[in-house]
From TrEMBL:
One of its GO terms (biological process) is proteolysis. Keywords: Aminopeptidase, Hydrolase, Protease. InterPro entries: AB_hydrolase_fold, Peptidase_S9_cat. Residues 86-252 form the Peptidase S9 prolyl oligopeptidase catalytic domain. It comes from the Bacteria. Signal peptide: none annotated. It holds the Pfam family Peptidase_S9. This is Peptidase. GO terms for molecular function: aminopeptidase activity; serine-type peptidase activity.
Amino acid sequence: MDFISYKRMPADLGTHQVDEVRYDAAGITVRGLLVTPKHSVERIVVYLRGGKGQVGRVRLGRMLQFTNTSTLVFGPYYRGNNGSQGRDAFAGDDLQDVIAGVEILKKMYPNVPVHLIGFSRGGIQGLLTFQAVQAASYIIWGGVSDMHLMYEERVDLRGMLRRMVGHPKKLPEAYQQRDALSMIDHTAPPILIVHGGLDEQVGIHQAYHLAKHLEAKQVRYDTFYQMGEGHIPRPKALSEVLQRIHSWMDEVERNK
C-alpha cells in the first residue's frame, strides 16, 4: 500500500519536502498534502481540516505549525474537494479518506506514533476515526463533537447539513452513524480538548459536552480552554495553543 502519485509543490523548505499526493480510499481516488522531513520521521501528525470546499481548505502554513525536524504532517483534502473524486459527505464516506491515508503512512513508517488533530468540522472527523486508526492521541481544536448540537446552534448551516447529511428528524440514522460519543469507551487513546470561550462558529459547550462524556467513560483527557479567544486564536494565544499541542504529543509519547 502506497500513495498512487506524488506531485512536488513549489515550497522552498530546508527541512521538509512538500507533495500533493493521490491515493485510493475505498475505491475513490482522493488527494492530500504531505509534508515530509528530509531526514528521519519520528512523529506523524494527521491534520483534519475544517470547513467545506474552499472554506477551511488544507494550507501549507497551517500544517507547518505542527512540524519539527522529524515530524511528518499529512492533511487529507476529503473527497469532492480540490481535485479529489467523489462527494463530500461531512463525516460519512469521507472518513475513509482519513483511515486510508493513515494506513498508508503506518505502513511506510511502522512504529512511528500517529497523532490526529481535528479542527472545527475536522473535530467530528477525528472523533469518528482516531480509535479505528489506533492513533497515539487525538487533539480536537475548536471542534464539533456532536452533530445534533451543531444543527441546533448553527442555523446558518442547516441548509448545508440537510443537503450533505439530511434532516435530523427525517434521517435520524444518518446522525446516529455520526454519533461519535457513543463509540468512545475507556480503551480510547488520550484526548486533548482545545477551545475558545468566545467561539461563535463552534460553541464551547461542544467541548464541555465531550469532556463530560470522556469523564464518564474514564478516558484519559486534558483541556486547554482560552476563554477570551474565538474560533481562531489571536497571535499570542495561537502561540500558546501550539506550545500546548506540541508538549501534549511529547507527554503522550513519553508515557506510552
